[in-house]
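Hi there,

I know you've been waiting on this one. I reran it after we fixed the sequence typo, so this is the corrected version. Both the input and the resulting structure follow.
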Amino acid sequence: MFMKNAIFLYYILEGFGMWVIEGREFEVRVGGVVVVPLEKRFWFRGSLKQICITTPAWEEKYEHHIRDIEF
């Protein structure tokens, strides 16, 4: 998925996992922060509880879902 008009900031509350932004992999765990710039494709996997903050506010019409990932 990617957003045309919003920056995402995710704070990892619990668990661990892997984030992928534009093909680059990042391991994340409790206390970590992930910043997704404008128009960057991203996805994540793992046992994660995270909070997402966007600026400007998220609107469904600007989200571009590419596909679901099966594990």
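Quick highlight: DSSP finds no helices and six strands in the chain.

Best,
R. S.
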